[in-house]
Amino acid sequence: MSTPHRDLIADQLALRDLLHRYADAVTRRDSAEVASLFTEDAEWLVGGYGQPSGQREIAAFLDGLLEDWTTIVHALLSGRVHLHPTEHDRATGRWYISEFGKRADGSDVCFAGVYHDDYARVGGLWRFARRRYDSLFRRVGQEVTTSPFPSDAPPFH
């Protein structure tokens, strides 16, 4: 029995499009669109803020995170994708991001951090199965907090 053909470039592009769709939806504050990019049983771990599971919880969680923001821009800085060599519907990724904007109280906000992702192809479409966000830099007004790259980060192959 032969192994089905896998288009590595198409998978890479589709996964990168998933990340771009996520950034676009966060910037537009469209929590329903963000949630639709996750699998039904996905986990989203945001250190210090929460760990919603499933699309409904993810949408509500994002709404809560952004309720005090008047403007947000979610920007992808750089990243990598690793396609699982034998499970063609699985992949992992590591992406560095920045978010900046303004809160309702007038304070400027700038965050930078790293996402550790597990992806699953469901119904022919790539989705987030698990996202973990670790903050590396956080500035709210004049207060700045930095953190090293997490020592317990998932390995990236």
Ordered list of secondary-structure elements with their pairings:
Elements: H1 8-27, H2 31-36, E1 38-46, H3 54-66, E2 69-83, E3 90-103, E4 108-122, E5 125-140, E6 143-146
Parallel strand pairs: 1-5
Antiparallel strand pairs: 2-3, 3-4, 4-5, 5-6
Polypeptide structure, described:
There is one protein chain. This protein has 157 residues and is of the alpha+beta class. The protein has a single domain (8-146), classed as Nuclear Transport Factor 2, Chain: A (Roll), CATH 3.10.450. The protein has 3 helices and 6 strands, in the order H-H-E-H-E-E-E-E-E. It has helices at 8-27, 31-36, 54-66; strands at 38-46, 69-83, 90-103, 108-122, 125-140, 143-146. Strands 1, 2, 3, 4, 5 and 6 form a 6-stranded mixed beta sheet that branches. It is globular. The model has no long low-confidence stretch (mean pLDDT 95).
